[in-house]
Amino acid sequence: LGGSISRALQQMSNATIIDEKALNDCLNEITRALLQADVQFKLVRDMQNNIKKIVNLDDLAAGHNKRRIIQQAIFNELCKMLDPGKPSFTPKKGKTSVVMFVGLQGSGKTTTCTKYAYYHQKKGWKPALVCADTFRAGAFDQLKQNATKAKIPFYGSYMESDPVKIAVEGVERFKQENCDLIIVDTSGRHKQEVALFEEMRQVSEATKPDLVLFVMDSSIGQAAFDQAQAFKQSVAVGAVIVTKMDGHAKGGGALSAVAATKSPVIFIGTGEHMDEFEVFDVKPFVSRLLGMGDWSGFMDKIHEVVPMDQQPELLQKLSEGNFTLRIMYEQFQNILKMGPIGQVFSMLPGFSQELMPKGQLDSTNPKLMNDSRIMRIARGSGRQVRDVMEMLEEYKRLAKIWSKMKGLKIPKKGEMSAL
Ligand code: GDP
Ligand code: MG
Q: Does ligand 1 come within 6 angstroms of the Cβ of 110?
């Protein structure tokens, strides 16, 4: 996907005359790429029309950086599409809020309920979980296990078959216990059906949630719009959570969910574990959708600190996963100048701050050098053994980070300023 967009932009810059046809060809290529990322056809078409209005052919012809102008326009347009224009209801710590989770079975509701509770608990909230899924056998056990692991109070029943009754009882109990975030997990069913939406309507009416969260699997593809709309028609969906962003799906369905519910995406799920949960951040999301990472920001940083003629080689080596001690030596000063390296890397998809090795470094000896060699290096360089060890630890730490860059598409020399 990233490849085809880069290609489209490349073709465009190769064209000597930028006319309407060249722009259209480019937009068509991008359209294909966005459809592949599960962005709904209608939304892609709207975007295409907007871009045509925004991008001024005269500007392009005047020799401004064409690719950058178009890329920026697409980027901004997608960001806008993810912004419904009004924030969602935000629960307040210390004040009771009821949050109801809805979504199809398997979308990740139960998992996400716990993540959401845990996220707030870590910030000092008093969350509680209510299992109003009486449809699926084992639903209560699953919630109970998650809740127990996170030490979050929970409510549910193995016997009761009325979801409305359980939801009401649970919410009442936790209100009395002064919980400030009462989370109601609901059933999903395998497909959209009348009974499910009627059940959601009843649970919502009985528990009067302050916020209804629609949970969407990032891989549902073009089905996202109808699904989100169907839920929105039965309950007042106020925000969206997109799960399984750790998988292959780019999550273009999120644009549909926002369009269908007129509510923002507020979190994303990035794994099966309790803490694999992130506040939604529109720019990295769109970068990923376009398959380009936040290369623009990353490249700007690199431009600032690494002399132009050294970049292609460095990036090529890093992308091949060849991070050697020599490269570290040669690039160390420049890399350091990039500021907190974590901040630079957080611009790339998959490099969230949490992924960075933190705190104490693993203090075992690097395998690649034995003690006598380390001592020899220390003597030869007039340093302490400890200094050499520290240097090797730093290498290991960086090597681990750089190794994650392996396979990332590296812009070629001429493309540098565009991507
Ligand atoms: P529910 O039927 O909507 O309650 O969905 P569950 O919470 O039971 O989740 C269905 C499956 O998706 C489970 O195997 C979860 O572990 C998995 N899951 C949920 N969220 C994520 C996520 O963000 N990433 C990954 N990889 N798996 C997830
Ligand atoms: Mg469930």
A: yes
